[in-house]
Amino acid sequence: MKKLNYIDLFAGAGGLSEGFIRAGFNPIAHVEMNKDACDTLKTRAAYHWLIENGKKKIYTDYLKSENKTKEELWAKVPGNIINSVINTEISKETLPDIFKKIDNELGKKKIDLIVGGPPCQAYSVAGRARKDMSNDPRNTLYLHYVKFLEKYQPKMFVFENVPGILSAKNGEYLDKILKAVKKAGYEVSLPTNKQQFLNAKDFGVLQDRKRVIIIGWKKELGLSYPEFKTKENNFQVLKDLFSDLKPLKNGEGTLNAVEYLKPTTEYLKQAKIRNGLDIVTQHIARPNNENDLEIYRIAVEEWNNGKRLNYSKLPERLITHSNTEVFTNRFQVVNGQGVSHTVVAHIAMDGHYYIHPDKKQNRSITVREAARIQSFPDDYFFEGSRTAAFKQIGNAVPPLMAEKIAEKIKEMI
Fold it and tell me: Are 396 and 11 in contact (CB under 8 A)?
């Protein structure tokens, strides 16, 4: 069976794409404006090519070496693999150049699918709560997405976004998006459940992460929104997701490769997180001051007693923010006995909302632990600084969820 070709727009670090590659799709191009995310996409593209061509050792050597640069790794694969990552903002001005680059890569092949989701701050409830987003230019990025549909006429598309898109401006943004894709020749549907969103935890991800997944298809195909089989999650973050990683204190760890503490768990195998490597990278924790560490200890104690920490109820000497009302939920512990709450891009700013549930470690979660909560495999390397890696992880679609969506899309096509 021929591989189905797709383009990934607003690709981020490639979580959505990873799922589609696993399901047998072939990426023609990834378009993304953030340089660190593009570097991650290039490294992952190199990984897939090296694995396919029996050269896995080149990739593992890269992870294990402290001296090899990403450019040296990229040089080991054909240029078109690296050049398929297009590092540019999608705008009216850049569209002609992006189309030209994709056309050069595409040749006589056809695009079967377009995936991606424009940056979601303009639609997010949190963003709207902080300031008026009505004039934010990101509100109209969907129009550029539609331009790709008009030019490449894929059989289907997948448009991913935050649940806030359903309510933004009383549903006006969503109506505009649906009208624009229908005008381009597509039937379109949202999840048929009552809430109209999907949750990553129903796809085996150890995270409560709600996302709106809009799926569209050419009118003549006569399709309908797929039914996804949800599964009951009986795994836990501490026991099944984190237990093979070396315990760390705040400020400890390394971006470099280290050995696992224990053999793999059933969950790590099922979720394809531990997939054959004998080392793990980017298990590094942020340093914290004594004030924060004391708050973390209190937060974990409260959590273990079935309560959330209320910032305003802390001892006065620990309260450093005058507006205690805004900071009421500033600190949160990851649920070690179940699934984590949603990992978002703010984790790049600080780790207060992602406190490790093990009181002995007394820290926020590491880059690798955040990546695991998002279901990224351990051989996925995030380029850039620790902060850049956190941001890429927080913005991503969980690969495990993406894979299940991709399998359905493949059946439909």
Answer: no
